[in-house]
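Morning run. Coffee first, then this:
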Amino acid sequence: MFQNDAGKVLFTHQTHTEEYYLDCLDCHHNIYDDETYNCSDCHEETGDDYMPSRMDAFHETCSGCHADYGAGPVECSACHVL
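And here it is:
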């Protein structure tokens, strides 16, 4: 469960790895090596020209993948629960 200003977001790694066959590096990518990192290790609350903010990175990765593959919610209220 991710807590944020827009409401809690329920996320399960198990669903994404077992049902959608995603590898950890599909989301926990790193441009320098093949190690997995938490999003907050690189993405700060405020982004810049080089690195998107944590919120922008989540939205781009999560809803972008959902839209591209037609799997999972893309509407705000479908993920964010108050």
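The mean pLDDT is 87. Good start to the day.
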